[in-house]
Amino acid sequence: MDREARLAAQAEESRKFFIESCIKSDTPRLAAETYPDGLDVQSDIPYIDDGSTSHLLDIYTPGNAKTDEVFLLIHGGAFVYGAKELDKCFGMHLALRAGIPVVNINYRLMPDTDLQGQLQDIFSAIAFVCKKGFRVFHTVGDSAGGYLCLFTAILLNNKEAREECGLSAFEVDDAVCRSTSPICGAPFAKPDQFAGYFFDREGKMPSYIYNLADAVMKFGCPPIVLTTGDQDMMRRPNLLFYKKVRKTDIPVEYYCAESTEDRVMHHVYAIAHPTWPEGIRTIEMTIANMKK
Description:
Blueprint: H1 3-32, E1 39-46, E2 56-62, E3 69-74, H2 88-98, E4 102-105, H3 115-130, E5 136-142, H4 144-156, H5 159-164, E6 176-183, H6 212-219, E7 224-229, H7 235-245, E8 252-257, H8 269-272, H9 277-291
Parallel strand pairs: 3-4, 3-5, 5-6, 6-7, 7-8
Antiparallel strand pairs: 1-2, 2-4
Helix pairs in contact: 4-6
């Protein structure tokens, strides 16, 4: 077996194992979730009218919400798994506390598409939301969604970056991203490892897709809040990213939640437990970042 075939086989094996593991943990969590009251919930709105569940979004709107400002929430799942329902409870709590709507989106998963395709879905959702009168965006996401929310913030504010990434066709020039808040995000990837292997098999994208610190240095970024946990496998990459960005003039904050006797700060703890004190602090930091 040559190297390319070996890498492909390893990536596919890792993808299947990851999905199986996620289903085992997410199924009971979702079954036990209780959603808060006090929101207008619009579910399964198609932002691309193609009949695909990958192109649906939810909008959670609190009473007396601002009309032009919105959170864009992007779920995680190592780019190969997941749906907006994974982040629904978190998104509803965020909307209630922030006082502005939260748009929670689906997007196509790898390997059915690549990173460019996922970004095209996200910008299709942004263009759809813009038509509803929203112009000011704040991005938030967890794990792979943390990567995507950070990259989206960079791209939304920079036309040159969008052109380099094949997103110039989207009519979003009137929109702006004012903050980005990755939760247990993945700022780095490797093209020879899962899930980076699926990013750009055709070589269409610039090299900084594998290191978002490089994208930040080249194009800038709105204020960033990085949250992670002491038992999060993304803790070290987030700390390294924080140290790099801190050397710039971009406002950046870092919070690593500490485990207690009865609460383990695992990967995406705030998404799974938005009412834990640590989850509430993550939401409050995200809102404070929005208000900057």
